[in-house]
Amino acid sequence: MFYRPEDGHGLPHNPFNAIVTPRPIGWISTRGTDGSENLAPYSFFNAVAYEPPQVMFASTSAKPDRDGTKDTVANIRDTEVFCVNIVEYQMRDAMNVSSGPYERETDEFTLAGLERSSCEQIACSRVSGAPASLECKLTQIVKLPGEANYTVFGEVVGVHLRDDCLVDGIFDVMAFNPLARMGYRDYTTVRERFSLKRPGE
Predict the structure, then answer these.
(1) For residue 84, what are the β-bridge partners?
(2) Which residue range or ranges hold the Flavin reductase like domain (predicted)?
(3) pLDDT, tens digit, for every residue of 2-49?
(4) pLDDT value of residue 42
């Protein structure tokens, strides 16, 4: 089949987010200027540069009390920092709990029963048991076409790696099985890998 998004797809559910999969999940923690803490997962997330290391995530919906966006982006607009926590398979239920459309005063760390630790370089909390956490300083927020579409870019200024995920000097994703988003309500996890040499290597 072929369809133009502006005309609609005619299917029971939108297939677009099932096409670009699997997508890594950035579990973004932020702190508001009032000291309130927020934690929410974003599957429009990825690393975008090595030197300096940079990441991005996109927020695509809004809450009535957040001026056209959600708590995460609103907090980052105010404080210019955020932390990306990597989600392992064992944390899938806590991640899912933190994804709800809660009031801005809700602390998702507490709601999901998660331990928090202070970041080293930024004024923000991180998920204590996460396989890795990336402390980030905002570089830019880009407004995309669409009512509530924003892409947030940040430079990574601090990296936390869980000790058991380092195997012979390699950050080994098989030690924790990262969670990834597929389409609809579906997720997957990394349980196998293979290597390829680049041409000329």
Answers:
(1) 28, 134
(2) 18-173
(3) 999 999 999 999 999 899 999 999 999 999 999 999 999 999 999 999
(4) 98
**How would you class 96 by CB atoms within 10 Å of its CB: exposed for 0-12, middle for 13-18, buried for 19 or more?**
middle
Q: How far apart are alpha carbons 71 and 75 in whole angstroms? A: 6
Instruction: Please name the amino acid found at residue 115.
Output: E
Domains parsed from the chain with CATH numbers: 5-189 (2.30.110.10)
Q: Give residue 110's pLDDT.
A: 98
- The predicted model scores a pTM of 0.95
